[in-house]
Amino acid sequence: MALLEVKGVKAYYGQTEALHDVSFALEEGGITTLLGANGAGKTTTLRSICGMVRTVGEISFSGRRINGMATEEIVRMGVAHVPEGRGTFVNLTVDENLRLGSYTQGKKDRVQRDLDLVFNYFPRLKERLQQQAGTLSGGEQQMLAIARALMLAPRLMLLDEPSFGLAPLVVQEIFRIMRRINEEEKVSMLLVEQNAALALDLADHAYLLETGNVVMSGPAQVIKNDEGVRRSYLGY
Amino acid sequence: MNWEFVLHQATSGLANGAIYASVALALVMIYTATEHINFAQGEMAMFSCYIAWQLIDWGLPYWVAFFCTIAISFAGGVAIERVILKRFHNAPVLAVIIVFIGLLVIFNSIAGWIWSTVLKQFPSPFVDIFPTTKLVGPHQLGVVLTILIILTGLYLFFRFTPLGLAMRAAAQNPVSARLVGVRVNWMLALGWGLAAAVGAVAGMMVAPIVFLDPNLMAGILLYGFASALLGGISNPGGAVLGGFILGLLENGIIVVENLVGVTVFGNELKLTVALIVVIAVLIFKPSGLFGKVRVKRV
User: Fold this and answer.
1) The domain containing residue A130 runs over which residues?
2) Window 14-53 of A, Cβ < 8 Å to B
3) Which pLDDT score, from 0 to 100, does residue B241 have?
4) What residue segments make up the domains of chain B, in order of their start?
5) Nearest chain B CA: its distance from A83 CA (Å)
6) Which of B35, B67, B122, B274 is deepest in the core (most CB within 10 A)?
7) Do B20 and B224 meet the contact criterion of CB atoms below 8 Å apart?
8) Cβ neighbours of residue B90 under 8 Å, at least 6 residues apart?
9) Does the structure show a pLDDT above 90 at A156?
10) Topology (CATH level 3) of domain B3-284
11) Quick check: ipTM above 0.90?
12) What are phi and psi of A190, to 5 degrees?
C-alpha cells in the first residue's frame, strides 16, 4: 500500500481552481519529487495534502482519508510540512522553535532524545540555541525548519523549495542532510523544487506537474534523461 | 517636603497601576492572538465580580469564593470564544467590534437585571491580614501583592511550559503553529479563559474601593486600554509596565501640585492629565514606549 495516495484531487483558493485533476502515489521510504514551472501547482499540492486549502477528490495517508481534516490533526498523524518561506517562528529562540516541533510528543526524556538526534544532523543549530530564529542566516533558518519538522518524528516530510534563496554550497549541504535523514530515520519525503536538476539527483521517483495536472511520472533517472524534460526544465 | 505624603501617593499609585496593568494584560492577551480589542473585557470582569459577591453572600469564605470565581470566569471566557467568537474568525473587523459591544451591553444589563443596579459593598480580605500603616493601606498592599503573584505566575507559564509556548506560537504565527500540531483554535479559547480570569481578579481588587455596580469597570477598562497603548499593545510586558506607569503618573501629578503648592487639577482631574500625557507619548511613539514598530509590506 502506498504511504500517500492522491486521487483525482482538485484544489480551490476561494472560487479559483488551482489543481484540476492531480493523481499520484508515494511509496514508503523513498524521496519523491514534484517538478514543474512556476504556477504549475506544486506548492498547492503540498498545501492540499496537509489540509491548508479546500480540496475535492481523495487524499489518503497510510490508508486513511485525510482531506477534510484539520491541518493540526494531519500533522499529528505523522505528516511534517516544511513550508515555502520556512515558516519559522522568527520572534522565538531556536530552542523554542525546536521544542514546538516536539509539542505533540509530550514526554520530557523523549524531547531531549529528539533534540540530540536533531543536533547530530544540524550541529550548527546547537550553537545558536538561544538566538532568535529571525536573526539566523537563510541557510540556518532552512535547517531550523527541517530540524523542527524532524522533531515531529514524522513518517512523511513535505519539503517546499528548500533550496530557495540559498547559496549553492549551502543547498548542497542541506540536500546531503536530507538524504541522510531519509535513509537513517526512514522518513519518506515529498520534495517540491524549481531546481529540477538538483531534485532529480536526490529523488528516487518524480512527477511532472503542468498547470494543475500530472503529465508525466517515472523513476528520477528516467525522467532526467527524457528529451522534453531536459529541454524545458534542465536547460541542456 | 513631606516624604510620608509622597510615599503614600506612590504606593496608592502602584495599587491603582497594578489594576490597570492586569486589565491591560487581559486586553493584550486577546489582541496579540486576534488583533482585536475586546471591549467587553471590563464588563466580563464586572460580571465575575458579581459572581464572587453572590458566592460570598451565600456564605462561602472569601478565598473559596475568590478561586471559584476565577475558575468560573476562565470557563466563561473559553465558552464565549468557542460558542460565539469562533464563528467570527474570518469576519470583517467591524462585525467583530459589534459583537464585542454587544457582549458589553448584554453583560451590563444582565448584571443589573439579576443583581439590581443598587451599589453593593464588596469585602476586602486584606483588611484582616495586613496592619494599617500610615504609608500604605492594607487593601492596597494586598492588591499589589495579589496582582504581582498573578503576573509572575503568568510569566512563568508563558515562558517555561510547553502549553505556554504553544499559545505564544499560535498567537505569533497560527499557520506555522498548526504545522507543528498545535490546536490553534483551542489556544485562542484558552487565551480568552486566561484573560477573563485575570480580568476577574482585577475586578475583585477594584470593587472594595469603589463599591460594586454594573458600571464598575467602565472607567477601568479605559485606563487599562490606555496603559496597554502606552506600554505597547503588542508587548505584554510593556502593557503591564504601562499600567504601573499610568498609576504612578496620576498620583505623581498630585505630588507635584503639592510640592509647588497650588491645586489646579486635584483628584478629580489627575487621571485626565495622565491620559493627556499618554496621548502626548503616543504622538511621538505610536507603537507605545516598549512596543515594536510593525512594518507591513504592501
Assistant:
1) 4-234
2) 50, 52
3) 95
4) 3-284
5) 8
6) B274
7) yes
8) none
9) yes
10) ABC transporter involved in vitamin B12 uptake, BtuC (1.10.3470)
11) yes
12) -120, 115
